Amino acid sequence: MLSKDVKFADLGLVVVDEEQRFGVEHKERLLQLRVTVDVLTLSATPIPRTLHMAMLGLRDISSLTTPPADRRAIVTEVLPYNEQRIKRAIERELSREGQVFYVHNRVHNIQTVADDIARMVPDAKVIFGHGQMEPKELERVMLQFMRRQADVLVSTTIIESGIDIPTANTMIIADADRFGLAELHQLRGRVGRFKHRAYCYLLLPQDRPVKEVAQKRLKAIEQFTMLGAGFRIAMRDLEIRGAGNLLGPEQSGHIAAVGYDMFCRLLDRAVHELNEPDTAEPIEHVSVDLGITGVFPKVYIPSEARRLEAYRRLAQARTPAEFEQAEADLVSAYGDLPPAAHTLFDLSRVAAAARALAVRTVAKRGDRIVLLTERPADVAAAMDTGANDIRVVGADLAATNARTPSGAALSEVYWSPPKPYLEPGTLLRVLPRRLGFETSADPRLESTPG
C-alpha cells in the first residue's frame, strides 16, 4: 500500500493501527499522504516523537482510558530467574484451569527451554512456536493452544499482538531487560483479557548485569499496572529515550537529565526567541514571600505520585478557569480542600496574577507589599483604586538592585494596604483581585474587608 507504484483513485482516510511498528520510511510516505487525506494513527504506546508532537500541539490526540467491563489490572512483578518461582506460577495458573504464555525470544534454543518447562511442571503439556516455523506447523501449534489442548505455550514475540485467549492469564517473560517499554506493555496485554486476575512475571538474566536504562524500563512497567496505563508508559518511554528529531528521521532521542517538562520549556523558549526576538522573555517563576505557606497534606492526597501531579498541575495553571477546574477535579477525587490546600491555591493565584504583569517577586515588608517588576507603570495602573496607596520606585533607586536573567534592572512597586487586609487569609484573596486576576464568586470573599 505504501509502495510508490500504488496509486489511489480517491483516497480520503488512512487508518494506521499499531503505529509504533512503522519505520521512518513508512512514516515519510504517510506524511506525503497527509497533504491530501486525513490520517488516523492508533497505538497503545505511541513512539516518543509522535507523542512529543502531540504534547506540543502539532498533532491532535485522543486518549481512551475506559476499560471493558469487569477487566482487572494485571499484577506485574520483576524478579530474578528462579525455577521454583516459575514452577509455582505455572502450577497456580493450572490449578484454576488456566493457560500460560512463556516468552523466550531466541529461536535457536527455544525447544530446550520448552523441555526445561516440561521438566519443572511434569503435569503440564508444553508446546512451542516461533516465526521461523513453517506456516502450517505454526498454525497447528496456535490452534492447539487456543483449543486448550496445551497448557503452556513457549514462544517468541510473535504473540505480541492479535492474540486474544481469555483462558491464558499468566505470562512469564525471560530476559525482560532486552525488551522495550512498548513491547513489554504489548506482551503483557495478551493476558487479562477476561474478568480473571492476570499475572505477568518479568525475569532478569542470570549471567549478566542489567543496564541502567533497562532498569528504568522495568521499573516503569512494574509501576504502571493500572488499566489504561499505555499513555503513562509512553510518557515514561519518552522521558527515558528522548523525543527524537522533529524535523529529521530519528524517532527517539536523548533528553538526558533535564526531563521532559524542562525540555519542553527550553524548546518553547527557543521558539519564542526565534519568532518574537524583540518581546520580553516569558517569566518561568514568580517568588511569593508573604510569610504564608500552603501544601497538599499527605492525609488529603496519600499517593506521592498523585500529590506531585497535583502540585505540577497547580504550577502550570495560568487563568482563573484553569484554577477552578483544577480545584473542581481535586474536590471530585478527594473531597473538600483542607485549609492548607486552599492557602496553596490562593498563593498560586497570586503568582499567576503577578506573572501576567511581569512581576518577578511579591514580598511583604512590614506593613507594605513590594512587587519587583520590569513593567512598573502597568502594575501601578492595575492596582490603583484611587486610594493613594501605591508608590513606584524606579530601577535606578530600587533598594534591591534586582535584575532579570537577561540583566535588565527591576523597579519596585509598593502597596500600603489597610491593616485588616494584612491578615493572611484576607491578603491572599484581595491581592490577586488588585492585580486584575478575576475569579468567580468565592464564599470566602464575602467577609473580605472593604
Description of the structure:
The chain is an alpha/beta fold. Among the domains are: 153 residues, 3-Layer(aba) Sandwich (Rossmann fold), CATH 3.40.50; 161 residues, Transcription-repair-coupling factor, D7 domain (Aspartate Aminotransferase, domain 1), CATH 3.90.1150. The protein contains 14 helices and 13 strands. The strands form 3 sheets. A 6-stranded parallel beta sheet has the order 3-8-7-4-6-5, sandwiched between helices. Helix 2 crosses helix 8, helix 7 packs antiparallel against helix 8 and helix 12 packs parallel to helix 14. It is elongated. The relative contact order is 0.08. The C terminus is likely disordered.
Main beta sheet = 6 strands, parallel
What structural class do helix, strand and pairing data support? alpha/beta
Q: What is the helix/strand order?
A: EHEHEHEHEHEEHEHHHEHHHEEHEEH
Poorly predicted runs of 5 or more residues: 245-252, 443-450
CATH topology term of the domain at 287-447? Aspartate Aminotransferase, domain 1
Strand content: 5-15%
What integer is the average pLDDT? 81
Q: What's this model, at a glance?
A:
The chain has 450 residues and is α/β, with parallel strands linked by helices.
List the helices and strands and how they pair.
Blueprint: E1 13-16, H1 24-33, E2 38-41, H2 48-55, E3 75-80, H3 83-95, E4 99-103, H4 110-120, E5 126-129, H5 135-146, E6 152-155, E7 168-173, H6 181-188, E8 199-204, H7 212-223, H8 230-241, H9 260-275, E9 287-289, H10 304-316, H11 320-334, H12 339-356, E10 359-365, E11 368-373, H13 376-383, E12 390-393, E13 411-415, H14 424-434
Parallel strand pairs: 1-2, 3-8, 4-6, 4-7, 5-6, 7-8, 9-10
Antiparallel strand pairs: 10-11, 11-13, 12-13
